[in-house]
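FAQ: What does a ligand-bound record look like?

Like this one, built around nicotinamide-adenine-dinucleotide:
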Amino acid sequence: LAAAVQTVRVGGARAYDVHVGPGALEQLARAVGGRAALVVLDAEVERLHAERLGALAAAPRSTVPRGEAAKTFATLEELCERCAALGLGRDGVLVAFGGGAVCDLTGLAAALFARGIDWIACPTTLLAQVDASVGGKTAVNLRAGKNLAGAFHPPGCVLADAEVLATLPSAERLSGLGELAKSALIEGGELLERLEQAAAGPRPWDEATETRLVALAVAAKARVVAADEREAGPREVLNLGHTFAHAIEHAADYGRVPHGVAVAAGIGLALAAAERLGLACKPGFVERTRALLRALGLPAGLGELDLVPPLDPDVLVAAMQRDKKRRAGRTRLVVPLGPADVRCGVEVDEAFLREVLAGSRIR
Ligand SMILES: NC(=O)c1ccc[n+]([C@@H]2O[C@H](COP(=O)([O-])OP(=O)(O)OC[C@H]3O[C@@H](n4cnc5c(N)ncnc54)[C@H](O)[C@@H]3O)[C@@H](O)[C@H]2O)c1
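The answer part, i.e. the structure of the complex:
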């Protein structure tokens, strides 16, 4: 089945369109529209996909380090200096062509240069297509923590081309599936059902299946962020699985467990927390969620991360105690109770967290 490009509008003070599907990048030249542009990408995306830039292949490029190494003040400064050297004015545009790291960095450079210029996000990983390129959050990392210096600066448009995902390494794909599973649980309905069907079916998914899933996940995130552009409250649902996930990534020295995989394990732990608290989950939901995660090849708890040696519970608990969202010494969790039924602000203490972590080691 041939897949067509689908367009999702993200509302808010500055609304923008997300074009999802095979060939979405063909719209890049039109989106730039003759403005002076700088393309930001890493060497791997350049090697694999530079020819997809079409007319923009002739535009100046800045090649930045791969992954988190791009999200530094040094790279941000270099990028801004490059914009200045090219003489980019307020009507200039930056094009982010890469994963979530390149999108976060480029979006922040666009927020800062000349007090804010336009940028176009061309996310090339599944995680960036379903999550990082939608919502307007941009950032670099500080020594004190990830994403601690950033700005809200939505792109002018997003071009999420399904064709570039064909070259994604399996660990990166799995990471995107973790965020996709999170979206499906928050959204329920068609997205959850389609993801369950796809998880049970053959791989790799065809472009039509993948495009529909990405478009539905983008629409789901768009609804949440449009209602809470600056993360004042309702966006908290998007943190499902993330309090545990950030602790897992920290305890695993960042890199050993991809972000979305940690999110999946975190969702499993949040479910375990809901069960232990005696919160009324929809009948069968706990089993259904664990089955979905496992069918996608994701862990549904700590034991399934299969890390040797296993993560140290003391380090995990200490990391959760540093969580930005803590209040009065208690950790705030987001827990799933059913499809499209997520409870935020569930406060728990250290002893409770230790019980949940201990229980999750056993399959
Ligand atoms: N702003 C937000 O709302 C938001 C949301 C979620 C995540 N993020 C950020 O996103 C980042 C993670 O993004 P990510 O998972 O996309 O990882 P990434 O950007 O680090 O990219 C991962 C790797 O995949 C490679 N790659 C990219 N596209 C490829 C392709 N098509 N084929 C082959 N290889 C390809 C890259 O070279 C890189 O080595 C984190 O920094 C996270 O903080 C931001």
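Follow-up question: can I read anything off the structure? Yes, for example: The longest strand covers residues 145-152.
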